[in-house]
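Kindly inspect this one:
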Amino acid sequence: MSAKERVRLDAMRRVQRGELTVVAAAELMELSIRQSRRLWKRFQAGGDGGLVHLLRGRASNRRLPQELRERIVKRHQERYGDFGPTLACEKLSEEGMVVSPDTLTALLKERHLWQRRRRRGRHRQRRERRASLGMMVQMDGSHHDWFEGRGHPCVLMVLIDDATNRTYARFYPAETTAAAFDAFGRWLQRYGVPRSVYVDRHSIYRDEDHPARPTQFGRAMQELGVELICARSPQAKGRVERRNAVFQDRLVKEMRLRNIADLEQGNALLEKMFLADLNRRYAIAPRHSADLHRPVDAEFVLEEVLCVQEERVVGQDWCVRWRNQWLQIAAGKASAGLAGKRVLVKQLTGGTLVVTHGSGRIDYRLLVSRPVAARSKPLIVNNRLWKPAADHPWNRDPVGRAALRGRPASAAPQQASHAGVRPLSG
């Protein structure tokens, strides 16, 4: 099931147990009451499978023919490229190509031919609190001189429930992905999985250069089925911003009275006294008493979801490179033929590495350096004909030969015959 269908399944099960009405479940699922009643009937008739969309894996019955889609796009680019979608659809319908503005926009977006036009600023109004605990959690990192010069700089990661003001916070050396994972994971362990989390546009939560590509935190929220909402201004998530101001006032003074100057002592103060007192003072009752936090699914290992994950390719030597480290895959996986394939490397909290392929873990050992195959020095055989240079000593005249060059050559001496041997006659 998709993440949206799991949310609907959880809502329908709550209706089945009598915790919610169909009308309350409609608000939770963000559907109309009529559609929610239809889903409730399908759930009663078909169980969990009744919530799966019936057109999954099939093209829409109202999809335009491919030939007509191509004609529409071609004609739009030829004549109506600078027209608005509504006017362009009117002109296309006059030529016999009837299409809605939304469909035309979708066709152009598929081919990267649509450019968004600047619009007027929207009218804004104060947002009402969520109705139930767990519907939305706001999270932010608060940068401040927490120890007033007595210790190293740090950041306070703050989470607050939108409906009840229930708060959790913890100190970290910096506002990093690891800090966000750890703080959010501690909230999950205390209360469960919220429906949505409201954050700013920090690079931890959103990649401005590639908005469609989720960050590590965004990928984890997709796996957990949590909607990630990125605010466009600090005022949009004003509840957590105001809670930051409370911490910067009260918490700083409490730590000053106790002469606290490091992270460990600050976190101990938060866990033992400060957070409980803060929630007792400022938490409020929600409009609806139901707690909409979901328990973490049994199939999830939380520490393997809230961590950095990246794909790596296994080399022909069965090694995987991870941030200047080499992981040698064990020989027991030789039958899987992993050379050249992609595996998933997860770096858990504390630096532990986990390598998985499919749904199973892969055993490995950490190498000090990449293994290098031994190379034998080849035997050098020189078969090239060597000719000495003109100035080589072999080509120099010996002493006295230069004086003989100008003299005529003497006659060759006659060969004397040996005694008793007659010369051969011609």
